[in-house]
Specification:
321 residues; alpha/beta; eight-stranded parallel beta sheet; 9 helices; binds zinc ion
Length: 321
């Protein structure tokens, strides 16, 4: 049986270990236990980590920033940038391998060798800015992959959907003056939720005006509001854009049982978003879609959420062949 869905997974992603921290290696451990004990494990093409070339990280990040966090991390600093960005001596290498592994997966989906994929990586990326580590993120994995696809593979319309409960400031800021990336995000109201960006009024500027779509949600919103926005706002906007590649910042911290935010959705909503994104990819981008793990901190629920997300990608891939 030819495997059509890739899973980027590697033990090195558990070696970014900063002790007591919500973004810890147990997140991957419990997700892997769930996947390995399920029938989908054997259907996934495992993609290993790989060290990213420096030039790839520089697609999004300033060389000075990369040098300075490398120096700080290797000299034993407890954190870089802000105090929530805790580091251990291995953090720099793990972050490089997250980028390189994600690019490896992107190459296989781009070439058609795989239909779609899930990057089960740490550290996450969507808060990382060009010159700053933020919100547990050091390198912006998804933004680097989008820029790689545009600069090296001639894609012209990349859709990034970010359903992490926190706004993906780093990703938005990487592309907000351009129209070759359409950044969409649904997240908790930035007046009360980290990182404080992602207001509806942020719609991009210059050539990029209209290619940033932020849908902030009131605290305690649930499935009904999220599904309303999916059907009335996102699906029409995605269909109008006609992406030639779909990328998802898959964060699971909007779940009702997550400790880091106050949005009350269930797996039903996650499944609906994932299905809709797979449908858009099938319609406009030959199914090409990659999901990147971002947040999600309840170790009891995150395995099931990732499992059902990947199962939908497998089903979508099967209908494409
Ligand atoms: Zn988050």
């Amino acid at each position: 049986m030819k495997r059509l869905t890739g899973l980027l997974t590697d033990p090195i992603y558990q070696e970014h270990d900063t002790g007591q921290h919500p973004e810890n290696s147990n997140r991957l451990k419990v997700i892997l236990e769930e996947l390995q004990s399920s029938d989908i494990w054997d259907q996934l093409e495992k993609i290993p980590a790989e060290k990213a070339e420096r030039s790839m990280i520089e697609l999004i990040h300033d060389a000075d920033y990369i040098d300075s966090i490398e120096r700080e991390i290797k000299s034993g600093a407890p954190f870089v940038g802000t105090m929530d960005c805790m580091v251990c001596p291995k953090t720099f290498e793990v972050a490089e391998q997250a980028v390189g592994g994600a690019l490896n997966l992107a190459k296989k989906v781009e070439s058609g060798e795989l239909k779609n994929g899930f990057a089960l990586v740490r550290p996450p990326g969507h808060h990382a800015e060009r010159k700053q580590a933020l919100g547990f993120c050091y390198f912006n994995n998804i933004a680097i992959c989008a820029e790689y696809l545009i600069k090296h593979k001639n894609y012209e319309r990349i859709l990034i959907m970010d359903f992490d409960v926190h706004h993906g400031n780093g990703t938005q800021h990487s592309f907000e003056s351009r129209k070759d990336v359409f950044y969409c995000s649904i997240h908790e109201n930035p007046t009360v939720c980290y990182p404080g960006t992602g207001f509806e009024s942020e719609i991009g500027y210059g050539e990029g005006k209209g290619y940033t779509l932020n849908v902030p949600m009131r605290s305690f919103s649930g499935d009904e509001r999220y599904l309303e926005e999916l059907h009335n706002t996102f699906i029409p906007a995605w269909s109008k854009y006609k992406p030639d590649f779909v990328l998802i910042s898959a964060g699971y911290d909007a779940h009702k049982d997550d400790p880091l935010a106050r949005i009350n959705i269930t797996n039903e909503t996650y499944r609906a978003y994932t299905r809709a994104l797979c449908d858009i990819a099938a319609e406009y981008s030959e199914g090409k879609l990659i999901s990147f793990l971002e947040g999600g901190y309840n170790l009891e629920v995150i395995p099931g959420l990732v499992h059902s997300h990947i199962r939908i990608q497998l089903e979508a891939a099967a209908t494409l062949s």
